[in-house]
Amino acid sequence: MAQSIDIISIFPEMFDPVLRISITGRAISKGALVVRPHNLRDYTVDRHRSTDDSPYGGGSGMVMLLEPMVRAMKSLEASYGQARKIVLAPTGRPLNQKIVRELAQEERLILLCGRYEGMDERIHHYVDDEIAIGDFVLTGGELPAMILIDALARLIPGVLHNEHSSVDESFESGLLEYPQYSRPAESDGLVVPPVLLSGNHELIRRWRRQLALVRTRERRPDLFGMVALSEEDRRLLAAWDAERRDTQQEATSP
Ligand code: 4FV
């Protein structure tokens, strides 16, 4: 059963490229994913097809009206069945690969894309989740919705084929990805680490694991703190640190 994602937005046409191109386009054309953008204005009842209004209590900006969103959710669930309903907003829980894997288990999702100052707070009476893609403010929830759809499409079996990316494996293991290189082996004096040209797959595996560990420890101590290090991991990190110390001593020795 393909996962279905219904999107409620005042700019459903923003999703056209996602439906046609790259991984998401392929997942849809294979029938592995169903994505249906819907125009929130189709769920308004006033002559102006209003989807926002001024905030109670005053203040700048406009707020997304509650009732068109609720009408849209109820209509979509009546048409397609109960779904996990998610608001995209900066106030949501920060998206990570663990949450993507969690949402990939859902048969149906409805993504609510806000604009302006965001949604009427009462929306939380109707939705199941609120997700942020980062601590910054965008103009609308459409780009966050596209990001979530992309991340979900990559997890659908058979969608990635041989493009299966090591990025996914590294995040699955909670580490940042190791450095990647391709042709040429040398460019402007910049060389590819010789181990990668050695053809020794075990040495290459170890080098990649070592670099993923070192990178995560340096750049994302928050992630590194949650990694269950194996004995091999500890040996690889110790070897890295010893080599760095030797290099520094050589550099400073007279
Ligand atoms: C956002 C984020 C985000 C805020 C005002 C849409 C905009 C407008 N969504 N992660 N960061 N949304 O900035 O998810 O409603």
What topology emerges from the helices and strands here?
Layout: E1 3-9, H1 16-20, H2 22-29, E2 33-39, E3 52-53, E4 63-64, H3 66-80, E5 84-94, H4 97-104, E6 108-113, E7 129-132, H5 142-154, H6 166-172, E8 186-187, E9 190-191, H7 201-219, H8 221-224, H9 231-252
Parallel strand pairs: 1-2, 1-6, 5-6, 5-7
Antiparallel strand pairs: 3-4, 8-9
Helix pairs in contact: 4-5, 7-9
Bound molecules: ligand 4FV.
Residues 88-90, 114-116, 118, 132-134, 136-138, 140-141, 144 line the site of ligand 4FV.
Task: Explain what you see.
- This protein has 254 residues and is α/β, with parallel strands linked by helices.
- The chain is 40% helix and 17% strand.
- The protein has 9 helices and 9 strands.
- Strands 2-1-6-5-7 form a 5-stranded parallel sheet, with helices on both faces.
- The longest helix has 22 residues, at 231-252.
- The chain is elongated and about 80 Å long.
- The N and C termini lie far apart (69 Å).
- The mean pLDDT is 95.
Bound molecules: ligand 4FV
Helix count? 9
- Secondary-structure element order, as H and E? EHHEEEHEHEEHHEEHHH
Distance between the termini: 69 Å
| CA-based shape | elongated
Q: How many beta-strand runs? A: 9
Largest sheet: 5 strands, parallel
Instruction: Give me the side-by-side strand order of the main sheet.
Output: 2-1-6-5-7
Over the alpha carbons, how many angstroms does the gyration radius reach? Answer: 24 Å
| Binned strand content | 15-25%
SSE-based structural type:
alpha/beta
**Oligomeric state of the chains present here:** single chain
Helical residue percent band: 25-40%
